[in-house]
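Suppose you are handed a protein chain with no further information: no name, no annotation, nothing but its sequence. What can you learn? This example shows the usual starting point.
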Amino acid sequence: KGKLTILAGNEDSGKTSLVLETIGLAMQENPEFIALWLETENSLSETMLKMFNVDMERFYLIDISKKGGAEASLTAFDSMLACNANIDIAVINSLKGLTPSEELINDFASMQVGLAARLNSKMTRKFLPIISEKEIALVVTQHFTTKIGGLPFGNPYEMAGGLSIRYNSALIIEMRKVMLDQKSDIYTKEEAVKISVIIKKNHIVVDKFPYGTFQYYAVFGKGIDRKFELINAAEKQGVLEKRGAFYNLLDENTGETLIDETGFKYQW
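A reasonable first move is to predict its three-dimensional structure. Written in structure tokens, the prediction is:
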């Protein structure tokens, strides 16, 4: 809370779903939790909101303005942040969809260089004091764009929207969809998607290593698989030991593998 978080990734990498599930869980835990959402991609549906248990009475939705462009939408967003003292999380989905009004007015032949970057820079400077004062978590989703004219090796992608918003963020999370393997994965591609997450910037955690990578399964119609999260935690704590596709249960005193009377080793 009080910080800017960026969720970056390619299309269909689980950014919107992750934020919606976070909001749904927070609303279940806290009956007074309120979310503000600026939608620029027309990607929300009533089915999605119901699936993640989002309470529409505590979910304020602002659609992108078709006439006034991004400026009009951000002004409405700013007014909600400044006037409503009860907002817990504010989401912009996504930065790429914020179209400056000058682009809407001018014809297709006109060149508009850096309009979005300047808009994002101004937006960041204006919103940061508000969210810091009111302890609002500001979450922005971003898409990757391909570098033009760059060297033909290394990572060809970079986050859209200019450098200013990255400098002012406290947490940057990159998300990518990973291909499922029939032998080692617990779900098929018809059942779930596998998301790989990389923490690229972290000014939230200061007492230990702030970066990390992890993976999770997002099950269609249900959301994030929590069992896999427990398995990973048990492995890190030394309760389980992974050997190939199997997880062996370890004795907490001796560290030896436990086998039941049938000789069966526990398999995930």
